[in-house]
Design brief:
This protein is an all-alpha fold and about 100 residues long. The chain is about 80% helix and about 0% strand. Helix 2 packs antiparallel against helix 3.
Length: about 100
């Protein structure tokens, strides 16, 4: 299982880095709005996958069921927060109107 943990971590980390590099390249070129939105959604999906991999590793770290519940709750909160940024009404209310900084 350790090999699977390491492989998943490497794949997700490289995928996320590649998506950021592509986003930087897109910033200096003329790109349609749909491509920018698709890239943002893809980065969000990969970020959520990263949270799942980290959760998987955290659950293997302890046998304490209370800590496992805490880890699951934290991961679900982070995943919900990452997805909420992509919902226009939530973004406008939480982040644009109240000046809450984005963590991406």
């Amino acid at each position: 299982m350790k090999k699977l943990d390491r492989t998943l971590s490497v794949v997700i980390l490289i995928a996320y880095a590649v998506l950021w590099v592509i986003s930087w390249i897109m910033a200096y070129n003329s790109v349609p709005e749909g491509v920018i939105t698709a890239m943002a959604i893809t980065r969000t999906v990969v970020l959520c996958l990263m949270y799942v991999v980290v959760l998987y590793n955290a659950l293997g770290w302890t046998d304490n069921w209370i800590l496992r519940i805490v880890f699951i709750g934290l991961a679900l909160f982070l995943i919900a927060s990452a997805i909420a940024i992509r919902v226009p009404e939530v973004y406008d209310y939480l982040f644009a109107k109240n000046n809450i900084p984005l963590m991406m």
